[in-house]
Structures are given as C-alpha cells and as structure tokens.
Amino acid sequence: MFAATTRGGTSAPSGRVGCTWWGGPSTGVLVEKVIDGDTIVLVGGERVRYVGLDSPELGPVGEPFGAEATRFNRALVEGRRVRLERDVSDRDRFDRLLRYVYVDGILVNAELIREGYAEAKEYRPDTKYQRCFQALQEEARAEGRGMWVK
Q1: CA–CA separation, 39 vs 41, rounded Å?
Q2: 47-50 and 97-103: which strand pairing?
Q3: What is the distance between the alpha carbons of residues 48 and 61, in angstroms, rounded to a whole number?
Q4: Which is catalytic among the residues 49, 83, 99, 114?
Q5: What is the mean pLDDT of residues 69-81?
Q6: Considering 32, 46, 47, 57, which one is annotated as catalytic?
Q7: What's the pTM?
Q8: Is 74 in a helix, a strand, or coil?
Q9: Under DSSP, is residue 36 helix (H, G, I), strand (E, B) or coil?
Q10: Exposure winner among 20, 23, 35, 68, fewest CB in 10 A?
Q11: Is 49 an active-site residue?
C-alpha cells in the first residue's frame, strides 16, 4: 500500500516513476479526522486541502470511488502526526490550508494518486510536484489501480 521510502531522506513512490521530495519524519501536527480523499482536519480545527490532486467527492449525490478514496486517506493519516509543506499559496477560497502532507516519510498527495484514489490536478501557482503527480497518474491508469481499474 505504501510507497517505498528512505526514512529521513528522500522519498519516491515504487514503480516506474522516479520522483523525489523530502520525506523526513512526521513530527508535526496531529490529524483529527479525514473529511474525504483530499481534505483533513487537524487537532484544533484547521482544515487542510491536499495540493495537486482531486479525489472523488462524498456527499448526498457522491461520485464513484469517493468512499474508497476517503477510506484510503483515513488509513494513511487519521490519528497520526503529519508534516505539512507549503507550495506558493497559503489558503484556498474556502480558507483551507493548501499543503503537501507527509506521514512517516510518505508524500500522501502522491500516494493517493499512485494508488488510483485521486487524479493529478494542476491548481496554479501551486505546481511544485505536478509533473511527478501526472506521471504517477499515468502509471496508475496503465496498471489499472484504484478508480482506473480496467
């Protein structure tokens, strides 16, 4: 389920895509709950929206694979300490923090895309890992993972 990592150094997903980012220990903030596949709430009430991706929505109507994306995200981060990384923007129009989120050296944003629980989505100007995210999505689609099941 998790990407191959080198604790305390760089982290890269397993598979064909060779992306790197800082994947140090998660000594940061505690995740209180997971809202859906791309939004979490930290202890204290701050909402965080993952940068560079979009996951299927939950809700009254919901979208296919929304529940699965939420469960996968919950398994990764709920009740755990995470480290947050900012790109260019601090907040979105809903006043949520926009961040890359790491847990135990794993870039959660990338892992959600790699496993097919979210799609890469460019939100300018926050594009630091976008080429990598796009490559991870192409790999997930080619291998039929998650929502890209054949």
Answers
A1: 7
A2: parallel
A3: 23
A4: 49
A5: 97
A6: 57
A7: 0.85
A8: helix
A9: coil
A10: 20
A11: yes
CATH 2.30.130.10 fits 26-145, yes or no: no
Whether 127 shows a pLDDT value over 60: the answer reads yes
125 prior amide bond cis, ω within 30: yes
pLDDT at 5 over 50: no
Which tokens hold the place of 136? 């991870």
Residue 25 makes CB contacts below 8 A (sequence gap 6+) with 7, 8, 83, 104, 105
Whose tokens are 């100007």? That residue is 125
Say whether 57 is catalytic. yes
Query: What kind and span of H or E run contains 67?
Result: helix 66-77
- 45: helix, coil or strand? coil
Mean pLDDT of 76-85: 96
Model confidence at 61, pLDDT cuts 50, 70, 90, reads confident
Give the sign of the dihedral formed by CA 108, CA 109, CA 113, CA 117. positive
Per-residue pLDDT tens over the stretch 23-46 = 555 568 999 999 999 999 999 999
Domain ranges of the chain: 26-145
Q: Which residues pair with 42 in a beta bridge?
A: 31
Contacts of residue 86, defined as CB under 8 A and 6 or more positions apart, other chains included, come to: 98, 99, 100
Q: Which of 47, 81, 96, 141 is catalytic?
A: 96
